[in-house]
Amino acid sequence: MNEGKPGTPGESEGPDGDFELARPKPVRSPRTGPDGDYELDRPLDTAPAPAPEGGTPDGAADTGWGSVPAPSAEVPASGSAGSVPAPVAETPAPGSTGTVPAHGVQGVAPPADEQPRPLHDPDPYSTPPYGEPGPWAPAPPVQHPAATPAHGVPVGAAPTAPETAPAAQDAPAADPWARYDPWAVAASAPPQQAGPADGDANRRRGRRRRTLIGAAVLIALVSGIAGGVVGVQLERNGGIGAVELPQAGVEAPDRDPDSVAGIAAQALPSVVTLHVSGGGRAGTGTGFVLDDRGHILTNDHVVEPAGADGDITVTFHSGDTAEAAVVGRDSGYDLAVVRVKGVRGLTPLPLGNSDNVQVGDPVVAIGAPFDLAGTVTSGIISARERPITAGGEKGDGSDVSYVDALQTDAPINPGNSGGPLLDGKGRVVGINSAIRSADGGLDPEGGSGSIGLGFAIPINQGKRVAEELIETGKATHPVIGITLDMDYSGDGARVATEGSDGGPPVSTGGPGAEAGIRPGDVITEVDGRPVRSGEELIVRTRAHRPGDRLELTLERNGEERTVSLVLGSSDGD
After folding, report:
1. d(CA 432, CA 424)
2. pLDDT score recorded for residue 172
3. Is the whole-model pTM more than 0.90?
4. For residues 552 and 563, is the Cβ–Cβ distance under 8 A?
5. Hey, which residues are catalytic here?
6. Rama region for 105: left / alpha / beta (φ>0; ψ in -120 to 50; rest)
């Protein structure tokens, strides 16, 4: 040190030649450190710091409190602003052991008359760092303000330590509960701690994030509850408002005349329902208008319960009703004609030709099954010239019907009897008469319901019989003039050897006698079509009109021959 240089009193020149300003001598007290800083309470450390080997180093005083640097007697030079002054040596109090407590270590306090006063007045509120902190509460770190470098000293240059500074290397390691020096120079980089502003910003961001998350959860919860309520309302009440489903617009009611709907629309006004009662019996059937005079064609078994004095009521498709009377009946053909009176504006159904019908042609059946008037069903022609017999409840055969029928799969049920079977152009090709029952028998009433086997009288036969019934009240039957053996089980129709009622089996002068037919002959074909039984021969014969010519193939004594004859006529009694 350049003690001999003149200078302002109280100033000294530092080691680097600069002048340092003198600073006040620190006053020590039991609660301040060697540098005059305020020292916080900490637990008592009774372990003395180890002394360096070889005794106390130069410039350090052995005080018994640990090794501390020897105080420097130099006075800082005037004008030195960047150096750190050495602490001023202190004299141990009289009666002491000659030692000074180590820096930051509690021990025996110096005498009261030598205790330095604190740099600051006592804090009545005990506020750190000058007041009394909690028993173990560390003081918050304070950033040391940057020092203004002296003239000629590079910015950032570390201050020159006094020559006695190396003695501080022997000081004990830093204790987290050591005294707190807010103006101490850190040996390393300044602490990187977030300031109050950064903490507040982080807290605000955290609060905003929590608020947003809570709002999102609340919105999701409310939306879920609202959706559930709306869903329940839609399910229970069919919607919040009126429900309107998509639907096709109104179309014209007209249909193609050849379609089922078109055929039904044209035919229904001409189809009627018959309710018959008499003799303790009653029945329901169907019929259709033949002409504008009120004649209606139906089945014989439909009007049969009325007898001679029963009641017949006709109900039209419009709902109008009228009383009817029997014009004529024929049980052999199962046909009958009734007539209504006092009814005008009737529209007859057009008649077709049953000979033109082919298997597979579409057909439509109209009737009142189980009294359900105006029922329309459809199907096809399943077969032609199907020989069937129906009736026979009387036992004498007087009510047996022989029909060379049209077979159809159009559903026919009880109540359809007497109704029309229409072709694809809405023309009548048959009169629905019977169905095959589930037990294998033919039932005109169809008590067991339809199984897809329905039979209709061909309209060609029905037309002839209806004309005769309207004109005479009776129908004629074509006959050969022979008696058949109905018990014959062989293939074909066998001529009986004895006639009925004691007469000859081959009527004298009849068509068969003139053709050369003899008793015992077996007829196997009619016009080239096989005949398998007596009933089938009757059906084939009645499919013709009286006066028609037939060719018969027969067997006699093992020989086959063909004969030709003209059909005769008989009343339908």
Report:
1. 16
2. 52
3. no
4. yes
5. 301, 334, 417
6. beta
